[in-house]
Fold each of these.
Amino acid sequence: MSANLTPEEVKALAHDLDPKLSEEDVAFQVAVILLAVGTGYLPTLRQLAPLVSLSRPRIREIIARIREQGILVREDGEWKMACNWMDAENGNVAFWMDVNVALGLVNRVAA
């Protein structure tokens, strides 16, 4: 994913992935968090909080969950997303599955 997106571009990307999803929906909020972290746009809690309607403790919980589940991984001293969201065939499904993982609805299981 490309870095240096503006907050508006991060939200627009979430809208592009599901145009019918309301910004008030928790899935949209989590999608914005994943996209913000995944694009390298807003890595800190202080910067993420204004983008979404979730509390800081809830954002911390989501970030912790995506670390625990292997979506956000540490490589060469940097945090990176371990995802296939840009895959033309299955990227959209992979992204929304990772949103469900971040929400705590499902767990990632190694193949």
Amino acid sequence: MVVGIANIRYVDRDQVLAILNKKSEHIRAQWMHIKDFEKKVEVDEENKNLVEFIGEYVTARVDHTIYWLEELIKQIQKEKI
């Protein structure tokens, strides 16, 4: 993605924005689907800490990805990039 951003001046910005918005929506939809599994999984006391750790880790990564993707979209829309 970094190479694509560096060469954005050679492509249609509207197309880039459409692709990035679609990617953002896809990530959000996938995340909501994964979060639904959390309610269905039975966790025993032995695995509780591990499940919590993994859940927090994945949540932080997804939140981080969505945040920076949205920041990129904003920067492209404002033509700062």
Amino acid sequence: MPEAYFAKVDTSINFGELFHLIHQQKENSRKKIKFNSLKEIYIDKNQFEYLKNNISISNPSYAFWGSQSVPDNKGIWNCITIKCDTIPQVIIVYTGGRTFPLYISIS
């Protein structure tokens, strides 16, 4: 089962701050959170860059799956994995059943 460091998303957070929060968790030996990949979505470079620049708002690329991004019966988060063929970073979104992200991980 995959594991990742997640950071809480608020309306003022940007991608750099999110990356920094996750890096701090790694440095402080925090425990990773287990998650299931509910859906793997591939988007183009422009969409990926847009998502990075607007990380705290709902995005059409994963909006359909937002309502299903909830914990399973064991409490494991069902997340949406967003990838781009030309960018090595992966964005993992947990929405808690909403259309906007509550927690995000970057790998």
Amino acid sequence: MFFGIKLISKEYPLDYSKVCQICGYNSSHFIKVNYIYFHFGFMLRFVISSEFFILCNTCTGEEEIDLKLAKEIIGKNPISFYDKYSLAIAILIIASIGKLSELKIT
């Protein structure tokens, strides 16, 4: 299919263990990132939904977190720049080319 919607799921292990809010064990955790993007030809993408969780390796209990905390823990934005902005950048480039073609050189 030339266009559609795709789900991406990524996991990032934490470098430390912490007490789980659900089972109460001090265990390792990881951050799970799920996001959905619309794609046009698999090249131009636009993220339409995202969610972030900290999951316990012992009980698989999850605690939802926001993007700011996920970025802080991981050290970078877990959603790639390309996935977020490639469609918008392509539209801007096409609009710029259209404007340049309207200019008359005298």
